[in-house]
Amino acid sequence: MRVLVPVVAAGLAAAVTGALMMSSANAATALPQSTVAVGHSTTGAAELKQRIAGAVAGDRTPGATTKKSAPTAGAVDGTKDAKIIGGSTTTISAAPFMAQLLYRDDRGLAFFCGGAVIAPTKILTAAHCVKGYNWADYGVVITGSATLPDAGGNTNGAVAAVWRQWNYPTYNSTTLDHDIAVLTLDRAVKAAPIRMTTAGDTVSYKALTNAKVYGWGRTSSTNENVSRTLKTATLPIQSDATCSRAYGRGFFKGHMVCAGKPATGSDAGTTSACNGDSGGPLVVGGRVVGVVSWGVANCVERGAYSVFSKVTSYVGAVYPRVEDANLNDDHRADLWLRRASTKIGYEKYSTGAGFGPSQPGDNRGAVNVVLQTDLNRDDYQDLVFRDSASGAVYWEHFVPDLEGGEGVWATKKIYSDWKTRTQIITPGDVTGDYKPDLLSVDSAGALWIYPGDGNGAFGAPSKVSTSWNQFNSVVGHGDFNGDGKADLLARSKTGSVGYLFKGNGRSGPQAFAARVKVRTWNTFNTLVAPGDVTGDGRADFLGRTVAGSMYLYPGTGKGTSEIFGTPKVVGTDYKQFDIIS
Fold first, then answer.
1. pTM of the full predicted structure?
2. Cα dihedral 577, 579, 580, 581 in deg (nearest 10)
3. Is 40 assigned a catalytic role?
4. Which of 81, 105, 177, 179 is catalytic?
5. SS3 296
6. Tens digit of each residue's pLDDT (9 = 90 or more) over 439-487
């Protein structure tokens, strides 16, 4: 009989100690700066170092489950568990995306997991490393180092705390199904992110495709010592049929993938992920295709394989976590508005079912476009606005104080003389590199993509197509059809027909698929797409009537005419605002 046990580090104190014993802006002064308070805070260096030392000194193993499941014929007998045995050491320059996740709480519970940087503040890891633990108060993440910290909490890497945590909603700690999670850091890190594979990818999972796994986990089945230096190993992807024969009902086709050659029963001849490698990436072609989830006890039982969460099945759920910056830091998209009579800017925070009271900000009388975005992926919501007089476009962003101070707002001009641009859109990452882009429609009706470089600057634009002047509104913020790629919504001038343009994750003429009719929006004078308002991971849509009623259309994740659910009124006093984003 098998006991399902995830692949977490077994006792950091023993494991790490054993490993150590084995080795000796240009501001636009004419335009206002935001005065809106930012709720996002950071944790000081002294506290982070203390957390690291506490985690290294820990001596418990979390995540073990007790439910036993009977194997089917031919299934491997043993305990679900995981690590890298075999393989070789590597450098952080070869895997700059690797992250060390250390945890110790006030109960003395301590453990270690791996993870992958998929955006400057986002770490992809396993749900069994996240679910049930308070990472904001007790966790720490290290990037940019191939070496584990010492017992004093010292590291040559960059250290960050966790601001938010998310795990797949239906993660099952008994079966380890849906074992995938994202940690949002309290600051942006410089480590080069790695992309996830795309939704619907089958090529990367073809049997015997070589994949690389990375981690600091156990290096032997006979002791608990982890590797002080980052290791990697090459594992061949196995077919679903092979994985099912090995693990029977414990393997969930479509949600899991297994890899490696059958274990030999001992360290000799076995290459496998092991304890401490949990949450680390399985990489094919420079993209994450799997997240280390589980294996057998001690990792070398004859005939066993390492098992990973199958990332292609979760891209649609994970992408909204990469694209979830909002005005008050609660995972739900908010509204920015300007009152027509006073030109004062306001924020309305989502409650999940609607919006709260208006929060006043500063005077925005000098602008005629305001858009929400997060151009530098630091998890603070930015504003892009256009100066009415000059047509210049500016990026306003928050610069946090990494020692817990208040931080400041900075403004940078990104384009000059965009007076004649009929549409400006900030939909997120259109080109597929996880860096938010800027789009515009020129006076001739051509749609252009300005690829973001992640710091408020942009590369050379590429033309998508012409004839976009047939639309009187083009909006977008996030992924409407659940495939992990940013999309657009547009309304025709004739007939007020609403269309979905599904993103392909590319630039130029191939950026969007053929349009799909989704609704007729002839009752609205303003279309708004701020992102995921309800907090369910799906991008939503809002429309304001001439009379001032705001309707919320909840996203369904379907890329068809059923893309939105039944609309409901979320307010009737929106007539007073002349800019809404």
1. 0.88
2. -160
3. no
4. 179
5. strand
6. 999 999 999 999 999 999 999 999 999 999 999 999 999 999 999 999 9
